[in-house]
């Protein structure tokens, strides 16, 4: 009798049991073959799905990159525009600072006396006399008109006390013809005093000098001399002197003015004014240097602030746009998975 062994466990079986086990084994192999085919099909489907997902991911990544680049470019443009607007705004502010600085310099110059600025013309003398003696009548003869440059009518209240005439000479060398001009102007205006305000003096003289009835004075001493002469005219008028007494007082005054004592007074005044002008110039130079340094500092601050502002805005815009786009991408992937 033939022996039948189980194909699975190799035990000896009867023919009937052997055939039964053999049928089960074949069925199992058949089922396994079917399952294997299904597995292969599923594997191919999974591979295809993965390839599709990879393609979609690449496309999405490309789209995200494109959108991010567009958003970043837009954010950079917007940030740059805002930064440029800020920069222009700050430049305008800086311009206002510069204008204010120029106004301050101008006011400082206008507030200084003409001799302090190294300038002196008839209009300067007229303005200084008006400022120093607001109750007096001070007028300037127009250019091209013969006569004194400035006519100063001294007043005490409503009372006319006398006239002082002035000629201004901003020249490099002295001419005796200047004396003839001022004397003629004094006679034409019935002036008590005639003053030649000059930058040039006769040889060996400077600051202050007397030539006959004419008083020569440098620019820096002109208003101070005018004040002394004015006080003399007011004092004579207040004394209510007769015509003879007035003449006597005027002669005594001219004798004093022509003497060394008065000249010493005027020279010391001129020297002190010169010292004060030098101090003022140093102060103005110091202020101007400080203003220039401050202007440069404002410009540096403006540039740095604008650069920082633009960078910060760009970073913030980029981060916000990335969040928006990434959120959109996640939403699409979630929808695809569903």
Q: What are its keywords?
A:
alpha/beta, Trna Endonuclease, Chain: A, domain 1, 3 domains, six-stranded mixed beta sheet, 6 helices, 8 strands, rod-shaped
DSSP helix count?
Answer: 6
Number of strands: 8
- Strand ordering within the main sheet: 3-4-5-6-8-7
What is the level-2 CATH architecture name of the largest domain?
Answer: 3-Layer(aba) Sandwich
Short recap of the structure:
The protein has three domains: 4-54, no CATH class; 70-103 and 292-337; 117-258, Trna Endonuclease, Chain: A, domain 1 (3-Layer(aba) Sandwich). Helix content is 68%, strand content 12%. The chain is built from six helices and eight strands; from the N terminus they run ββααβββαβββααα.
Question: Can you give a write-up of this model?
Answer:
With about 350 residues, the chain is α/β, with parallel strands linked by helices. The chain has three domains: about 5-55, no CATH class; about 70-105 and about 290-335; about 115-260, Trna Endonuclease, Chain: A, domain 1, CATH 3.40.1350. It has helices at about 15-110, 120-130, 175-190, 220-240, 245-260, 260-335, and strands spanning about 5, 10-15, 135-140, 150-155, 160-170, 195-200, 210, 215. The chain has a six-stranded mixed β-sheet with strand order 3-4-5-6-8-7, sandwiched between helices. A two-stranded antiparallel sheet has the order 1-2. The longest helix is centred in the first third of the chain and has 97 residues, at about 15-110. The chain starts with a strand and ends with a helix.
């Amino acid at each position: 009798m033939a022996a039948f062994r189980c194909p699975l466990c190799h035990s000896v079986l009867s023919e009937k049991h052997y055939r039964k086990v053999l049928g089960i084994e074949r069925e199992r192999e058949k089922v396994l073959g079917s399952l294997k085919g299904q597995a292969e099909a599923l594997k191919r489907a999974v591979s295809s799905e993965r390839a599709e997902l990879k393609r979609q991911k690449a496309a999405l990544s490309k789209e995200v990159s494109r959108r991010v680049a567009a958003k970043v470019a837009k954010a950079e443009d917007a940030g740059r525009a805002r930064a440029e607007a800020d920069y222009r705004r700050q430049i305008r502010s800086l311009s206002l600072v510069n204008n204010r600085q120029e106004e301050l310099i101008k006011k400082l110059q206008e507030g200084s006396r003409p001799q302090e600025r190294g300038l002196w013309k008839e209009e300067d003398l007229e303005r200084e006399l008006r400022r120093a003696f607001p109750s007096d009548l001070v007028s300037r003869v127009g250019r091209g008109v013969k006569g004194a440059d400035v006519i100063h009518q001294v007043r005490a209240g409503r009372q006319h006390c006398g006239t002082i005439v002035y000629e201004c000479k901003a020249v490099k060398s002295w001419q005796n013809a200047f004396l003839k001009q001022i004397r003629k102007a004094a006679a034409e205006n019935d002036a008590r005093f005639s003053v030649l305000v000059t930058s040039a003096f006769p040889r060996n003289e400077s600051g202050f000098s007397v030539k006959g009835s004419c008083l020569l004075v440098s620019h820096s001493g002109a208003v101070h001399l005018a004040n002394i002469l004015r006080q003399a005219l007011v004092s004579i008028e207040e004394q209510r002197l007769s015509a003879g007494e007035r003449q006597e007082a005027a002669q005594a005054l001219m004798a004093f003015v022509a003497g060394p004592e008065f000249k010493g007074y005027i020279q010391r005044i001129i020297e002190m004014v010169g010292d004060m002008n030098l101090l003022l110039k140093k102060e103005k130079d110091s202020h101007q240097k400080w203003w220039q340094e401050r202007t440069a500092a404002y410009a540096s601050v403006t540039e740095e602030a604008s650069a920082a502002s633009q960078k910060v805005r760009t970073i913030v815009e980029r981060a916000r746009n990335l969040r928006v786009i990434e959120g959109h991408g996640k939403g699409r992937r979630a929808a695809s998975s569903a």
